[in-house]
Backbone:
């Protein structure tokens, strides 16, 4: 069974072609600058890298060009994919699972742009494009928020008037759910415990970051909220703020809603604190000579540390802590900063192993550590492909 996984952005389209018989990625890549001049597509197909300079007026042109490359390589001219899985950022209050896309599902995805104006319209565009190019092929929406629908009401409820929250759907939804689910399953396998009888804290740390408490296979709390802005500081996002900061900014800087949103989402976080970069690698490189860079790094580490501690309390213990995504997988300094302060949980890591770069799942904790600490490269695309197979293989 061949599954095409698509992740549509406003001017980009990521793709993965997965052979589900062996769960092997045959091709992956991205089309960028869609609707903009100097567009291009880059890919890795069966280990061979390629790039095509191509102006693409819309997502349909991009996907058609991607499929042309695939049909000249891994797919024959007459072979098609069996299903298409789409990453959708926000599923709102109603989608607690992946869904086969119907006109009603697509309509609701578009209406949920209220919560994710930068993401859901792009996802809907990607879905419509795939429906046009693959008529009759089942399409599946996999929601970033779905995994977190298992949170108890007390964990997702905001301290606002209850009727207002009900009317507007204001609650903690959480994001990166596909990643958290994947790495939690891998972590349980690594430590040799059934997922259904484990307490795992997953730290998805990248340009966007979130931490999740996974108790017996279910998300019971997560750091992102109504939007991906809540939680720890990120590349350009502020993370948690006293709401009074927002009213002060609006009053003193005369900011309206869009200007405030731009400040919080695009000019804050590591970039705003350090003044150096939104890229954690560049921030870490500047730490020795730049106090603000070190401060930005420490603010991020401290934020993760607090969530790990609070989630250990929320689950009344923890079996394993997992680091994943760009920063989580590639920053030994960040992992050391956090784990060195978790001695009260019995955490101990092997600094030599922690400092060794690898793309494989691995333990960085010592054999006598009371809590396992692992690094697991995430694979959201495989999880989306699995969901697409689960919902369509009987069709």
Residues:
């Amino acid at each position: 069974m061949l599954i095409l996984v698509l992740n549509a952005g406003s001017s980009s389209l990521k793709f993965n072609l997965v052979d589900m018989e062996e769960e092997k990625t045959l091709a992956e890549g991205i089309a960028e600058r869609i609707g903009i001049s100097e567009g291009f597509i880059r890919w890795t197909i069966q280990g061979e890298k390629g790039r095509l300079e191509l102006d693409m007026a819309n997502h349909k042109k991009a996907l058609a060009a991607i499929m042309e490359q695939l049909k000249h390589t891994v797919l024959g001219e007459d072979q098609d994919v069996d299903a298409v899985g789409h990453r959708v950022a926000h599923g709102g209050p109603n989608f607690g699972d992946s869904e086969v896309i119907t006109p009603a599902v697509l309509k609701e995805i578009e209406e949920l742009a209220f919560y994710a104006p930068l993401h859901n319209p792009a996802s809907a565009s990607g879905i419509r494009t795939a429906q046009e190019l693959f008529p009759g092929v089942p399409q599946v929406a996999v929601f970033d928020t779905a995994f977190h629908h298992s949170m108890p009401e007390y964990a997702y409820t905001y301290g606002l008037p209850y009727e207002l929250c009900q009317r507007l759907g204001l609650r903690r939804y959480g994001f990166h759910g596909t990643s958290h689910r994947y790495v939690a399953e891998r972590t349980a396998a690594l430590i040799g415990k059934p997922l259904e009888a484990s307490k795992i804290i997953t730290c998805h740390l990248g340009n966007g970051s979130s931490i999740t408490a996974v108790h017996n296979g279910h998300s019971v709390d997560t750091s992102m909220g109504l939007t991906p802005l809540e939680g720890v500081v990120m590349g350009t996002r502020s993370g948690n703020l006293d709401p009074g900061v927002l009213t002060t900014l609006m009053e003193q800087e005369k900011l309206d809603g869009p200007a405030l949103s731009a400040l919080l989402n695009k000019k804050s976080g590591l970039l705003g604190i350090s003044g150096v970069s939104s890229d954690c690698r560049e921030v870490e490189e500047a730490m020795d000579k730049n106090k603000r860079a070190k401060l930005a790094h420490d603010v991020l580490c401290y934020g993760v540390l607090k969530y790990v501690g609070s989630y250990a309390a929320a689950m009344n213990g923890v079996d394993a802590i997992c680091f994943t995504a760009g920063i989580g997988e590639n920053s030994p300094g960040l992992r050391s900063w956090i784990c060195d302060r978790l001695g009260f949980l019995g955490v101990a890591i092997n600094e030599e192993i922690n400092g060794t770069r690898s793309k494989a799942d691995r333990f960085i904790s010592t054999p006598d550590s009371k809590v396992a600490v692992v690094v697991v490269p995430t694979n959201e695309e495989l999880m989306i492909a699995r969901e697409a197979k689960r919902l369509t293989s009987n069709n």
About this structure: The chain has a mean pLDDT of 94.
